[in-house]
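REQUEST FORM: STRUCTURE PREDICTION
Request ID: SP-0412
Submitted by: Lab K.M.
Chain count: 1
Length (residues): 265
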Amino acid sequence: MYLRSRGLHRTLLRAVLLALILFSSLEALHVRRYVAVARDAARETELRYRRQEGIFPAPGQVFITGIFWNNEGVLRETIVPALLELSSYLGHGNVFISLHESGSGDGTKVVLRELDAELEKRGVERRISMSNTTHEDVLSDADKSSGWITPPGSTQKEFRRIPFLARERNVALEPLSELAASGQTFDKVLFINDVVFSALDALTLLATNGGTYAAACAMDFKEPPAFYDTFALRDANGEEHLMATWPYFRAGASRRAAIRGCRFR
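STATUS: Completed
RESULT:
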């Protein structure tokens, strides 16, 4: 009887495992099918977008901001052209562009100065600031009161990246409060960084849920379908990501939302 019971348990366990594998495989195929459909829909949407048919809801006044460090290549090749195209689509009078350069050692400053001149020609309000303080300067600064911690079990202070980035981003955001004080407000704030994007990507993000949201963030894929930036990623239940590839999330609501997003609507 004992042996028969153990055999039954093993059979049931194999059946459950097989069912889980089959369900996961079918779900992955399901998502891939929607991705393929979305790709075709994206091509058609981009063609319509290029013809300026107004398929995206007007986001109103948009404050576009970001910080850059040693990003000469990606700025010149993709980000600057995307910014110029995006500002044209939204309307030059409907955007304010605030970018901060953070002590780069390459030609990032040169590219941003060129962008500043082009935006001036187009009548786009902007503030593009430059910093001469390099990362080496920050690390060698004798004042280690802000942004530095002493890890448990150590006597040496270490510099924390997040507080540093927060300070740099606050510099880029300064015009937002200054403009608000003079009565100029914005409907949306769009953060950009050194991740490659197109004007269509930005418009799609701004149109999330018909433009109704507190915050929306694009997913960052370094080598699709593997998700790259998992530092702040949380699912609908506030849990960290399950894995870097599909199904990504523990929460079923988040997986369903990802599938809906693949439908490009």
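NOTES: The first helix runs from residue 2 to 50.
Reviewed by: T.R.
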